[in-house]
Each structure stands twice: as C-alpha cells, then as structure tokens.
Amino acid sequence: MSEITIFGARPLFGNITPSGSKNAALPIIFAALAVSGVSVLYDLPDITDVRVALDIISDFGAKIERDGRRVTLDTRNVAYKKPDKKLTSRIRASSYLIGACLSRFGEFDLSEVGGCNFCNRPLDMHLYAAEKLGTKIEGERLSASRLSGADIKFNKISVGATINALIMASRAKGVTRIFGAAREPHVKNVIRYLRAAGAEICDSADALTVKGSILSGAEVKIIPDMIEAGTFLLLGPLTGGMVSVDIPKDAGLESFFEVLSDSGISISRNENIVSAWGEPFKKIRVSTSPHPGFPTDLQPQTAPLMARYHGGEIIENVWQDRFSYLNSLSAFGIKSDKIVGGRRINPSRIGAAECEAPDLRGGAAAVLSALVAEGKSKIKNTELIMRGYADIWAKLRSLGARIE
Ligand code: UD1
C-alpha cells in the first residue's frame, strides 16, 4: 500500500493542463478491439486504469506501442479467449468488453468487473442492449452469430450502457436507434472515434442513430479530463489561492462553474483558461445529474470546500448512495448529516489526519482536505487515486503544495 504525506494550509497558485480524460480513454481502448486495423490515440493519460485496459486488450492479441501520450493499437490479429478475471476485476471499464467482444468475436463470457465500489453498480442495461441487438444470454455466456440493428430504449441514463450499445451498433447489420442515451463529453469522444473508424452515427435530440459498417483503424485525440480540471479548480478557493486550468468551453463543466459562482466564488474564462479563486459567501448546493448536470464524479471533492466555509448540501441523483467517502473525511474533522437524497456538510474545522483513500474520487477529496488542513496529514492506499489522476503529485507540487 503506498502512502503520501501532505503538509497543508499553503495557498496554491498556478496553472494546470489536465491530462487526457480517463472516462474517454478507457472505452476508446476497448472500442479499438472491435475495430480491425491500426488505431492511433493521442493524449492517452498515463494512469493505472489505462495500463490495465491496455493489458486486457493485449491479452486478446492486440499489439500496443506507446510513445509518450501517443499510443498505437494494432488489432488486426486478435482472437477471442475467456477474459482473465485477474485483469478484468481491476477496472470497471472492463465492462466495455461486452460490446467489444460481441461485435468483434460474436461471443463473450461475463467476467468480474472492478472499479470503485462506492455502491452497487449493475450491468443489466448493458445486457439489455446486447440482447436487443440479437445476443443470446445463457448464464454468463453471451453469443451472437451476427448482431442486428434494433431500437434500444434505456429508461435511465447510463454512460457505460450507452457506450456499449454504440460499440455493438457500429458493427451490427442495419440501423440501431438508442433512445435515452447519455451525452457526456466522453460519450461524444467515443462517437468521434467510431465515426473515424467508419460507423455512421447521427446524434439528434431524441436518439443516437447508428448505421453499422465494417470498421477499420482510426486516429482520435482524447479530450482533456473534465473531472481532473474540476478537482484542480477547487484548490484555488479551498486553499485561499488561485488555480487556472486549460479546458475548452465544451468540456461539460458549465453546471460545476455555475454552482461555484452562485456561492460567490470567482470564476473567469479567458479563451481556454479558466481560473477560480475567492471565498463563497453562502452555502454551496450541489445536485448531481447526467450531462449537462453537475457531474457525480466531482461531488466528493466539493465536500472539503463546503466544510471549510459555510457548509453545503449534496444531493446525489446518479448513484443510489455515494457518500461512504465521508467516513474518511470525518478523520479531518469534516462533519456531515444525512438528509433526504443526500448529505448536509457542516462548517467544520479541518485538521490534519491520517486516512486511507476509500476510492478514486473519495481519495481526491481526502487529498483536498489534507491540503487545507494545518499540519502533517498522511493518506494511505494512494494507488486508488493514481487510477484516475495522471502525475497528480507533480501537478500539485507545481502549484506550491508540499507533498512527500
Ligand atoms: C461512468 C463513469 C463513472 C461515472 C459515471 C456517471 C466510467 C468507467 N465510469 O460509470 O466514473 O461516475 O459514468 O457519470 O466511465 N445503471 C443501471 N444499470 C446498468 C448501468 C447503470 O441501473 O446496467 C445505473 C447505475 O446504477 C447508476 C446510473 O445508471 O445509477 C449511471 O451509471 P452509469 O452512467 O452506467 O455509470 P458507469 O458507466 O458505470
């Protein structure tokens, strides 16, 4: 178990360029398995989850060449094999093997998926989409002699199920319409890759319409990580400093900016550079929802900011209960109460503490707490944080954080 020591209460100043988006990079790596050809991915982040995803596809025979942030995936000579549970159980994104393997090989054996276990994370919608496109499901064995286009009607918005449906529909015979699809920027990045690979995908208000084709290798640039950008922006107001991030207008952070500026925090944009500083003058209210709403992956990191100033409320609408990270934050003195649909975060004196990162985003929230706490804090199990934040310690040090 790796650990870091943080000497907090130092105002942080500076500019950060976020790495490539984890939640875009991972499905694109698996989508490349559904494609026969050579794909080039630019700005692939160097994080643990990406390394595991690359190991998983190389297990099927994909050849991978990494040259810094540019990665070439050659999936011309791949063959189906039962996925290795030791690898798939390490990342949640291995669920994208459902779509990739069914479209490329016509078969898949469900394997344990991993990732953050902050609550129950079912796969029923992924399987519903596979079934609609002609997959036979017998226990854990999935088979489809040829996927055929169909109408898929999701009754809830799921990033993962939408992407799996897109991967399958892109190689299926005929036309698929996906109703109730997720439209997160990372879903759009996957669409850009599949289009470049040869799929015809039309995004209209009510549905994503996909005409399946033979897919071949393609080039794609991974978008900047909106969650990393949001996490770093919080550091300005949190530590009494000012942090800027390089993030485009369509990054999907508008609701996040709105919540911060409604509370009195200053947010400015100059072309692609967004800066955040100043104190909130009232409670911060967060209510998560799918894009274009406030991203659930940024709610844990707002808790220390609420606690430091006037408190706040977090209503979680994407996951049933995503608050177990508050147990770790309580070590820093952050106090919270249960309310209908979420938690109230009370104004608290944040003090140095030792804790274990509970999961990826909860771990980031613990780092933010340690950065604002007076004295020396220790965070253990930092592997979980490295799953999703590339070069996080170097980036924090560049802002003036003291981290050992
Ligand atoms: C992805 C992200 C995750 C983020 C989430 C929401 C990856 C690897 N992970 O997760 O970081 O928090 O989007 O932006 O990209 N659901 C079902 N049945 C299913 C699938 C989902 O009921 O088969 C429900 C979930 O329980 C949840 C909601 O749908 O309530 C949203 O989940 P989903 O968008 O699928 O999350 P992931 O794709 O797993």
Describe this structure in words.
With 404 residues, this protein is of the alpha+beta class. The protein folds into two domains: 3-19 and 224-403, UDP-n-acetylglucosamine1-carboxyvinyl-transferase, Chain (Alpha-beta prism), CATH 3.65.10; 22-221, Enolpyruvate transferase domain (UDP-n-acetylglucosamine1-carboxyvinyl-transferase, Chain), CATH 3.65.10.10. Helices cover 34% and strands 24% of the residues. It contains 14 helices and 23 strands. The chain has helices at 22-34, 48-59, 85-88, 97-105, 124-132, 159-171, 185-197, 226-239, 254-262, 299-308, 325-330, 360-372, 383-386, 392-398; strands spanning 3-7, 13-16, 38-42, 63-67, 70-74, 107-109, 136-138, 141-143, 151-153, 175-179, 200-203, 207-211, 219-221, 242-246, 266-270, 273-277, 284-287, 312-315, 335-339, 342-346, 354-356, 376-380, 402-403. The protein has a four-stranded mixed beta sheet with strand order 21-22-1-23. A four-stranded mixed beta sheet has the order 2-14-16-15, with helices on one face. A four-stranded mixed beta sheet has the order 4-5-3-13. Strand 15 and strand 16 form a beta hairpin. Helix 1 packs parallel to helix 2 (48-59), helix 1 packs parallel to helix 7 and helix 8 runs parallel beside helix 12. The longest helix is centred in the middle third of the chain and has 14 residues, at 226-239. The model has no long low-confidence stretch (mean pLDDT 97). The site of uridine-diphosphate-N-acetylglucosamine has 19 residues, from helix 1, helix 5 and helix 6. Uridine-diphosphate-N-acetylglucosamine (UD1) binds next to helix 1, helix 5 and helix 6.
